[in-house]
Amino acid sequence: MADTVTATRGPTDGRRRAQRRKRRLAIVFVLPALLLLGALVVYPVLFSFGRSLFDADGDRFVGAANYAAIVQDQATLKAIRNSALWVVVAPTLLTGLGLMLAVLTEKVRWATAFKLVLFLPMAVSFLAAGIIFRLAYDQDPSRGVLNAAVVGVHDSFRDTAAYPTARTREGHGLTGGAGGPYGTEETVRPGQAVDLGFIGVAPDAMPDGAKAATSAAPEPDTIGGVVYLDFAPGGAGTPGRIDPGENGLPGMRVEAVRDGRVAATAVTAEDGSFRFTGLADDAYAVRLPAANFAAPYQGVNWLGPALVTPAIIGAYLWVWTGFSMVLIGAGLAAIPRDALEAARMDGASEGQIFRKITVPLLAPVLTVVFVTLVINVMKVFDLVYIIAPGPVQEEANVLATRMWLVSFGGGNDQGLGSALSVVLLLLVVPAMVFNIRRFRRSGA
Length: 444
What we know:
Layout: H1 2-51, H2 65-70, H3 74-105, H4 111-119, H5 126-136, H6 145-157, E1 174-175, E2 182-184, E3 193-198, E4 222-229, E5 253-258, E6 261-267, E7 273-277, E8 285-288, H7 308-333, H8 337-345, H9 350-378, H10 382-387, H11 393-396, H12 399-407, H13 414-443
Parallel strand pairs: 3-4
Antiparallel strand pairs: 1-2, 2-8, 4-7, 5-6, 5-8
């Protein structure tokens, strides 16, 4: 009997010793990773939570005061609203764009090249992408490519002002402020002529067809005149008088006004001359409308307070659309083709197949992509910090940038910054847990 018990215990103890050795070996291999995880993740989280309970200097315990300050600070509340906007808009647009592009690329021969081009921005860092889009969104059309395109389209459908920098000399027969309109100080009657001199037009801004100006000769029953650049080459001319070498200003719109109403209009010729005919014998004021002097259209203020957040979201879409398309495309490739073919044979249209078969079968992939993007969006920092100019930085801030600005960007309040980091962690954790559970279920 004893021999039987000993024989039974022998193999069992051996297996136990082998299992203990395997556990010790596993601990040896896992220990470096655990140490790194503790040093890089667990310790910073615990330290940030502890630091959030102290004041800006870290000397005085304030409890939950920093967390209460989060909901009282208007700049922080604006950052929270912007973060909520990012979470709602960016992942939704990216998932929709990725789905649309993944479906479309299945139907073209050059799908691989198309996917490569769309995925290339993923190789660009957020720092580089921020610099690229900061330049692309520049207000100056000569630098910002988007405004250059907008201005080009605008100017194709609407004429620009002829002389936006032109202005009149004081005391030389014209009244009006900068940008117009300008009008004659004294009224004129048919049979009289007026000379209207302007300055402020650079030589390279003069139209190519401009000709030398000459004083207008009075004609019966006609009001005539000339609009000219009252500046001779070298500055040798006499102000208020047409001198040799002074050119007319062609393309200028001129109006004859009586009792506040426009009685006649004319456009200056290449030598700047104009004439009003068919006027009643009455006194008229000669006026040059403000449209002649309007500043050129400068495009859209992409980085202004109203559009800075949508503009940055646009840059984010450029970077991450390829990621969304590739992941959804992989899920699309795994869909059973016999289900699609059976639907086509039953007479279903492509739209019906997409809505009732493709999208439902892709729902798990779409959910993973969406949640992954939500996690990434809540941590966005680089694009916001680089693209938003200083004067509108507060309008574009999200939680991550607000946390950095409060802690290190001039606020020097690491207690409040730590509280913001804890809040950001608490907001990210549920999405991470949801994604991990989905991965485990799909792996099972």
